[in-house]
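Worked example 4.2. Below are the chains of a multi-component assembly; read each line carefully before continuing.
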Amino acid sequence: MRRIWQPFAIVERVLRDRIAYFAEIGRGEKLPAKIADLLAITVFGLAVFGFAAGLSGRDIAQALISTVKLPFLFLASGVICLPTLYYFSVLFGSRLRFLQTITLILTAQTVAAILSLGFAPISLLFWLSGSEPLFMVALNTAVLGLAAGLGLIFLVQGALYIQEAQPPDKITFFTWAWMFIKGTLRSLVLAGWMVVYGLVGTQLSYTLRPFFGVPLGGHDFWSSVGNVIVGLLK
Amino acid sequence: MTDDAQANTLLTCRHCHGQFPEPVERCPWCGKQIALHCAHCGELTDDSTLLCAHCGQPHSPAIEQAASPHDSAPPIVIARSVTPAPKPPEPPMEVVATWRELRGPWRVFAMSEWIMRDRASFFDEIRARSDLSHKLRSMVVSTIIYLALYGLVMGISNSWQQALTSAIKLPVLFLVTLLICLPTLYFFNLLYGSQLTFGQTAALIMAAVTITAALTLAFASITLFFWLTVPDYEFFILLNVGVLAITAWWGLSFLRQGMRHIQRVAPQARRILAVWVAIYAFVGTQMGWALKPFFGAPGQPFEFIRRTEGTFYTSVFRILLGLLGFRG
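Applying the procedure described above to all two chains together yields the following structure tokens:
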């Protein structure tokens, strides 16, 4: 029974003791085991949230399909963007190894998955109390976007921390900002990569639609968003 | 008798003489290290000695390389302390003893007394993680009773049926909202670097809800009195909202104190609290919306649940739009 809960031990370390966790990645400690745990949590968290979000259109079949689609969306985006991040980082003098890059990307997705998992009961409550489908779509998309964004922050911090020759013990927001500025070119690569990752993710989500079972119209991701906003205001 | 024996098996920190129930590496009172895991057998052993109390080997490699043991005294085991040591300021004994020693159904009422009267010892016990599940059970049961009683008063403006259903709905509102929010609250806790475990988070928030419930009940007779003497429906609603706002405010301040007390370093406590309140309010308003009505205008037909499509926020939004002149 304990084996099932074992991957969750890493969640506490990632969220609470971020610095120690990044230091472990920097030293290359047990990366395959970490990757396996992170993968398990990402799939589980996003599957649960996918189910809750897929109920927006009041169709259980859609909910079950989204249970599979949402983890796939995140993992596929990560895989698609992985070579770009690795090679361009190496090109600009980054110390990141391939396994470390995989671990960092997966960490970002695990953070997103965990926060979404935590929000799933709240989403279910809104669904159960009869919220309109468009509201559910807006709510779930906003949460997912926020969670993914927070995950990306972890990625950037991890990458910056590992690059540091002598990382400080106590890190504040300004320390991170300073590390980011110091990196100049490498940081630009990171920032650029995040934009690419976002574009890939949103476009993939449009290609893999529907997730919510609600007809959203639009010919790409952003026009769908526009339709949702217009629909809400009506 | 068993409880007495158990009370004597508290462990004592050798630095500050604070007492706590379970063997730990660092004293929960002063934070100094008092034990470590033996390098040979892995058991937790007193670090002031040279040999592990369980396997008899030197508990750390540094000691094995030491020239000669400095400590000539026999190994002191982190064992059950029998001699009473000078304790940190103790709570008034009768309050602490009351909840711990009472058995049976009246025990739950002693819990809120304890929380309100002597927060320090309550927070200390949460920090030491002693008996959390029993505490939680008492808190949940007492909250249900208090809020049910106040729900009776809330619904009385309409009919006895409304009073009964509000008595059910009000506890459900508070407790189910808390249940739904707990995972998110715990994760935000972790994100902001808090050292609280899931159980401690649950116990702390539940204590705040219990205080809110108890204080709300304290107003029940006043609310009832005003309804009987001033049968104005709008005033009644305002009064209830006012009562709930006051008690919620108190519960929040309790929560803030608790967080500061339990964590030696309270990382960004204000921000954590703000996020908690935002999430709880967000979910709570929707929950209240789904469960409405809680009151009922006198003379209106009784409705168990008035179903309207949509959420609290879209309704408010539409009302706002309507007020501003935009018609959908």
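Take a moment to check your reading of the output against the notes. Chain A has a mean pLDDT of 86. Chain A has one domain: 2-233.
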